[in-house]
Amino acid sequence: MYIYVKVYFNCFLLVILIVHNIQQAHKKYKSFLNKSIDHYDEIALVVSKDMTTESFVRTFADIDLDDGNQESVPIDHDNEEIDESLPTACALRVFPKPTISSLFPSVSVSVSNSNSAVKKVFEWIRKQSKKMKILFAVMAMLFSLVALKLTAKYHNHFFVASESIHAAGILVLIYKLTTKKTCSGLSLKSQELTAIYLAVRVVCSFNLECDIHTLLDFATFLFTAWVIFMIRFKLKSTYIKELDNFPIYYMVVPCAILAMLINPRTAHIYFSHVLWAFCVYLEAVSVMPQLRMMQNAKMIEPFTAHYVFALGMARFLACAHWIIQVYETGGRYLFLVGYGYLWFPMAILAEIVQTFILVDFCYYYIKSFMQGQLIIRMPV
User: Fold this and answer.
1) Is 297 a member of any domain?
2) Are residues 179 and 70 in the same domain?
3) Do 174 and 82 belong to one domain?
4) Fewest beta carbons less than 10 Å away: which of 78, 89, 220, 338?
5) Considering 82, 103, 124, which residue would you say is the last residue of a domain?
6) Range of the domain at 70
7) Are 371 and 118 in contact (CB under 8 A)?
8) What is the DSSP code (8-state) at residue 211?
9) What CA–CA distance (Å, rounded) separates 365 from 369?
10) Residues 226 and 297 in one domain
């Protein structure tokens, strides 16, 4: 009992730490946000392109001005002559880096001095070939796995930590939606896929185990359902549907077929086996629409980036649990009697696939964070 209390307390501290880091980041860049609305536009402002006139208009801005007032600009471009909102697509305009120093000398100097060594390291990595970058990523993951194995005594609790980090990531989204009043940059399809696999997993968990994992999944499902409600109804005008264009059925249908073919063999009914396998497979690809949306936008605002990075860390911990279990059992864990000879390999493969899907984003996230950048710039 003491062990479980200790693990849950550590997860709670992790959530507090994430929230604290977000608050510190906001304070660090407060001087950017307190400038006039025009200066904010010049630094990094999401804008939208009117498909009819080919002109660019502001997408949103929610800025505290020096005189105490707040300036807000809606995402849609309203055409007063025809009394309707024209369709928009997202783009980003970033002020040239050399000019930032003249506009914000205090922030630019502090960021430059503190991260000069880090910039050199990332610049060196950036110049390496693609094969070398992959090698560095694999080495970093192996080093992390070894560190986790040596420091963590109870590896089964990696799943608890993984689910807690996922819940913390959703809380970051809730903070964004309630304070910024915009869902720009968020993929509704990814949230709907997340809600689907969480709902299925909660139902299966109630029937199969009903433990702390069930509680965490249920809480995360409620948070996700609230995010979906906000995007669909309360903040619908700030949702950029044109960029969220990854078809859901491309993931749901193959996952359902695969679940019927390869699933765990237990004493429960066959339908429960299929549902459990379905939620495992769907979870592995649920982030794809969000990544596609970020690629379409080319840049990611901070809160969405924090959320996706939390997903990456959660998946890495879950994947680490499987890999360490396989290592400690000498490979026997892959083919446990009674569970089907293909189920465990497929479950581990699903975790690895999801981890590698997020590796590229996590690299750019860490790079931007270490360099003190507000906006994460994705490659074309």
Assistant:
1) yes
2) no
3) no
4) 338
5) 103
6) 36-103
7) yes
8) S
9) 6
10) yes
- Asked whether residue 146 is domain-assigned, the answer is no
Residue 93's DSSP bridge partners are 45
The contacts found for 338-347 with CB under 8 angstroms, 24 or more apart, are 338/265, 338/266, 339/264, 339/265, 339/266, 340/262, 340/263, 340/264, 340/265, 342/262, 343/262, 343/263, 343/264, 343/265, 343/277, 346/258, 346/262, 346/277, 346/281, 347/280, 347/322
What is the predicted pLDDT for the residue at 369? 72
Per-residue pLDDT 10s for the chain (380 aa) are: 444 445 445 555 555 555 555 555 545 444 444 333 333 333 333 343 333 333 333 344 444 555 555 554 444 444 444 444 444 433 333 334 444 444 434 434 444 444 566 667 767 776 777 677 677 767 777 777 777 777 766 666 777 888 888 889 999 899 989 998 889 889 999 999 999 999 999 998 887 776 787 888 899 999 999 999 999 999 999 998 889 999 998 899 999 999 999 888 776 788 888 998 999 999 989 999 998 998 888 777 788 888 888 888 888 888 787 777 777 776 666 665 445 567 878 888 888 888 888 877 887 777 777 666 656 666 55
Amino acid at 39: H
Instruction: Kindly list the distances between the CA atom of residue 33 and the CA atoms of 40, 69, 104, 142, 374, in Å, as whole numbers in the listed order.
Output: 7, 13, 11, 40, 11
The count of domains in the chain is: 2
Within-domain flag for 46: yes
Q: Which residues of 235-258 are buried (b: 16+ CB within 10 A; e: fewer)?
A: beebbbeebbebebeebbeebbeb
For residue 197, what pLDDT is reported? 94
The CA distance from 63 to 47, in Å, is 15
182 shares a domain with 70: no
Same domain, 165 and 83: no
Instruction: Tell me if residue 279 falls in helix, strand or coil.
Output: helix
In a domain, 349, yes or no: yes
How far apart are the C-alpha atoms of 51 and 48, rounded to whole Å?
9
Q: How many CA atoms lie within 13 A of 216 on its CB side?
A: 18
Last residue of a domain, one of 86, 103, 120: 103
**201 and 283 in one domain?**
yes
For residues 126 and 121, what is the distance between their CA atoms, to the nearest angstrom? 9
For residues 142 and 324, the answer to whether their CB atoms sit within 8 Å is no
Answer whether 170's CB lies under 8 Å from 227's CB: yes
Same domain flag for 212 and 309: yes
